[in-house]
Design goal:
By secondary structure, the protein is an alpha+beta fold. The protein contains 10 helices and 13 strands. Helix 1 packs across helix 3, helix 4 packs antiparallel against helix 5 and helix 5 crosses helix 8. The structure holds zinc ion. Zinc ion (ZN) binds next to loops.
Length: about 400
């Protein structure tokens, strides 16, 4: 517990130092210079009571976070503040782990001694791990996670390609006409319980013990939701990467921009309530995580999978058969009906078909293809239709 607050205190202090730099300072701030500052601070303040190894590791982690951000700003965000009760955790370097029995292990935590933990993953690779992270989630569970390289997904060339549309009614619609929907994250009983607790919370006095208890109970349910969403995303992205050589998606940055609260540019006014506010942001977060995991796994797979992100403009209004684009094509949220050729399909599936067509067009123009393009083209019926990139 103490380690958590130390680590986030050092992190936030060091982040502030880095953020306030630039103005007129000649000396550069590095992990090294901050280490020296930390040593000074430890002489003078209560920080000396904590573990220096853990405080130093917080600085290294921050340094790493900045590096990641500079190198790949599209992928990693700028390092942010560590918040109490939300980002509780610390990292251990120079790891030593001891086996107790089949289910329990011990890890040496500085200044705490040996701490027992339950083994939930395959043990084999832990010897090769060099560091670990100990975290406390909002529902009061402690975790020890070991760092190692993500396992590669084993796959063979399948020659199959797919376009993916992410939406409100269906989490994912594929150009093959399939829907991959995220299941309801809480059961009916759990949802009722959560609503009841939230009402209770609103009535209770701020800072009271009872209120804290309610808060904790709500956090427990929220953590459940997050875990289940993660599980679904992991499972779904792994399957997609296994099955397809090329996956085409929408560029989320553009998509989220065009989907203003007033509705989409193409489809103004509809679903305003659904897309606005909290629900929308949660949805976008889920899409973001989905994209990231899919891209990571695709790069990492034994036979790499090509991922193309295309501009999503008009994918929901264009007919995937004849290319006719008109507002009226979109009969409703669910149904697409072409005004020119009469082609009818589920609106999201039609969009996914446009997405794959646009992706193949990009690839055909000599994009970076390393996934056996010949095989790819034969197998897909969409390719025969005129593909216009947006
Ligand atoms: Zn048409």
């Amino acid at each position: 517990m103490r380690h958590c607050s130390d680590a986030s205190y050092v992190w936030n202090l060091a982040l502030e130092q880095r953020n306030s730099w630039r103005r007129g300072r000649s000396q550069k701030i590095t992990a090294h210079s901050q280490m020296i500052d930390l040593a000074e601070a430890r002489k003078l303040t209560w920080l000396k009571e904590g573990s220096s190894a853990i405080q130093q590791q917080a600085l290294r982690d921050l340094d790493r976070a900045f590096w990641n951000w500079w190198k790949r700003p599209d992928h990693f965000g700028r390092p942010t503040w560590r918040k109490k009760d939300i980002n509780e955790g610390f990292a251990i370097r120079d790891l030593s782990v001891r086996r107790l029995n089949r289910k329990w292990d011990q890890v040496l935590v500085p200044k705490c001694g040996w701490v027992k933990f339950r083994v939930t993953r395959e043990w084999r690779d832990i010897e090769t791990a060099s560091s670990a992270r100990v975290t406390l989630d909002r529902s009061g569970r402690w975790f020890v996670s070991f760092t190692r390289r993500a396992p590669q997904i084993e796959r063979k060339l399948t020659g199959a390609v797919v376009g993916i549309d992410m939406g409100v009614t269906h989490t994912v619609a594929t150009s093959k006409g399939k829907f991959l929907d995220m299941p309801k994250l809480l059961s009916k009983g759990e949802r009722q319980r959560k609503r009841r607790l939230q009402r209770k919370l609103a009535r209770q006095h701020k800072g009271s013990n009872r209120r804290n208890k309610t808060k904790f109970a709500i956090a427990k349910l929220s953590v459940k939701e997050v875990d289940r969403r993660k599980d679904w995303i992991e499972w779904t992205t792994t399957n997609l990467v296994r099955n397809y050589d090329l996956i085409v998606l929408e560029d989320l940055k553009v998509k989220n921009m065009t989907r203003s609260a007033k509705g989409t540019v193409e489809n103004p006014g509809k679903n305003v309530a659904q897309k606005s506010g909290l629900k929308r942001s949660i949805l976008e977060q889920g899409w973001g995580m989905f994209h990231r995991r899919l891209t990571d796994k695709a790069i990492n797979a034994i036979t790499p999978v090509e991922i193309i992100a295309i501009n999503p403009a008009y994918t929901s209004l264009r007919c995937s058969k004849c290319g006719h684009t008109e507002q009226k094509n979109r009969k409703s949220q669910a149904i697409f009906c072409c005004q020119a050729c009469g082609y009818t399909d589920n609106a999201d599936v039609n969009a996914a078909k446009n997405i794959i067509a646009a992706g193949l067009a990009v690839q055909g123009r000599g994009g970076t293809s390393h996934a056996a393009p010949n095989q790819v083209k034969h197998s897909d019926p969409v390719k025969r239709q005129p593909a216009e990139a947006a």
